[in-house]
Design goal:
heterodimer; A: about 110 residues; mainly beta; 7-stranded mixed beta sheet; 4-stranded antiparallel beta sheet; about 0% helix; B: about 120 residues; globular
């Protein structure tokens, strides 16, 4: 299985901060990397697909980059509604796997 | 946009079979290049992909659960189902159904999820 490792596991930030989350794959996954946001008690919501494509309806402050094994999710200016847990997921090869999550909390 | 909704018992006894249904609306479950998945999340933990059934009826199961899983589709009811046998407390989780609208694509839409607790 491809292991997906996110860092950090959690972070504290202020509204307005620039936030960066990284995701590393245990082998190359080309650009088959997707990012989700999950709020408590809710299903995950797709933010970024294919490493850098913004899902329709998602604010432009979210962006993704990377290819191969190293990827990043950036929130350019953190908003109150962005406090949540973020997961990366690879679909390069089955079994599809997720990172362990990064919880973004208010400082 | 495709919408999904899970249903099934919230409590299952150890060693029994967990059975869930995902109702699909806003699109046909037989649509080309759609992959219908189950994903689970134990309380306070991360996400684990369980397996999928494709638009053509082919299945792929996570090897960690393969011997206990069956995913099937009922095109007449526009729904697909999950059966997980010989459950233990470790199978307690929120189970969600989701759809991938392209091979190797992301999970585009998710159901809200349903908590299944394994306990006697």
């Amino acid at each position: 299985d491809i292991q997906m490792t996110q860092s950090p596991s959690s972070l504290s930030a202020f509204v307005g901060d620039r936030v960066t989350i990284t995701c590393r794959a245990s082998q190359s996954i080309s650009s088959y990397l997707h990012w989700y946001q999950q709020k408590p008690g809710k299903a995950p919501k797709l933010l970024i697909y294919a490493a850098s494509s913004l899902q329709s309806g998602v604010p432009s402050r979210f962006s993704g980059s990377g290819s191969g094994t190293d990827f990043t999710l950036t929130i350019s200016s953190l908003q109150p509604e962005d406090f949540a847990t973020y997961y990366c997921q690879q679909s390069y090869i089955t079994p599809w796997t997720f990172g362990q999550g990064t919880k973004v909390e208010t400082k | 946009q495709v919408q999904l909704q899970e249903s099934g018992p919230g409590l299952v006894k150890p060693s029994q079979t967990l059975s869930l249904i995902c109702n699909v609306s806003g699109g046909s479950i037989s649509s080309g290049d759609y992959y219908w998945s189950w994903i689970r999340q134990p309380p306070g933990k991360g996400l684990e992909w369980v397996g999928y059934i494709s638009y053509s009826g082919s299945t792929y199961y996570n090897p960690s659960l393969k011997s206990r899983i069956t995913i099937s589709v009922d095109t007449s009811k526009n729904q697909f189902s999950l059966k997980l046998s010989s459950v233990t407390a470790a199978d307690t989780a929120v189970y969600s159904c989701a759809v991938t609208i392209a091979a190797a694509g992301p999970f585009d839409s998710w159901g809200p999820g349903t908590l299944v607790t394994v306990s006697s």
